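Appendix B: complex inputs.
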Amino acid sequence: MLTETPTLAPDGLPYRLITLRNAQGVVVTLMDWGATLLSARIPLADGSIREALLGCASPEQYSQQAAYFGASIGRYANRIAKSRFTLDGKTYELTPSQGENQLHGGTEGFDKRRWAISNQNDTQVLFTLTSDDGDQGFPGTLNASALYRLTEDNRISIEYRATVDKACPVNMTNHVYFNLNGEQSDVRSHKLQLLADAYLPVDEMGIPHDGLKDVAGTSFDFRKPKAISADFLADGDQQKVKGYDHAFLLQAKGDASQVVAHLWSPDEKLQMKVYTSAPALQFYSGNFLDGTPSRGSEPYTAWQGLALESEFLPDSPNHPEWPQPDCVLLPGEEYVSLTEYQFIAD
Ligand code: BGC
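Resulting structure:
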């Protein structure tokens, strides 16, 4: 189903809202602005319905928050240090969006664009976007698509694709936040499992300097499920960024048939499994959510939602030595990144 809002987006046209439904009663809504996931309502075994995603009360509020709720991020998710990288001997200067660094594709990233709706039915929608040569400083014209599908086994499946006419780093992700409690509450009460042996320490600005570190013996070891609160702020790496805001290099190494993360609500009535073809997952515990508009009367406070963003490691254009596939997309190739969030209700 597609509807248009009476309110207008920053380009002066209505927001277009899309509703997907499956036979299990799951209802997912999206909008074309930012190819954004707005809501996922999951029926529980006791007959109640639980909202799994953080969100704002109206589409216009999405332009007034800096949390990137549910948005499609491009061309390059996470940070590029000093907004600069060198490719084939040429240095590209990007639009900085967090201090001197570029975060989430620049000041006018893909989250702030109107995507075209190329086709749509009850269970899927395909969005497309063209990013011009030089957009946010990136080389070449890039054509992107985002395919969202709601499956009968309760997965929100998100497939990003892109092609370019000049070599360019590409790292697309969806920045959806989860709280499986269904109401505004501290997400650190959730249990999390992350099937990753290494994480990437960062400085106060989220920039990695020293390469990957073994999770063993650190607060970053989620290989066995543990409450997020268990080791929260337990060491310097977390304290620098007010909690978890780090990329984990996944054991699955891009095999999207393997579970890479598993999340449980405190009452265990709702669980979520994550699958991805991306090499890494940024686990962000919502450290800077304070003041972000919510669906209710009170804004969110810090740590009320978490993101599990499928990505290349941050700042990869400046670290070709890292053990993951090359993040540079060449003309004639196609970038494909698949991520699935599967909900399991008890
Ligand atoms: C970043 C956080 C940032 C958040 C919202 C995450 O991907 O790692 O540092 O606050 O996005 O911008």
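The first helix runs from residue 236 to 239.
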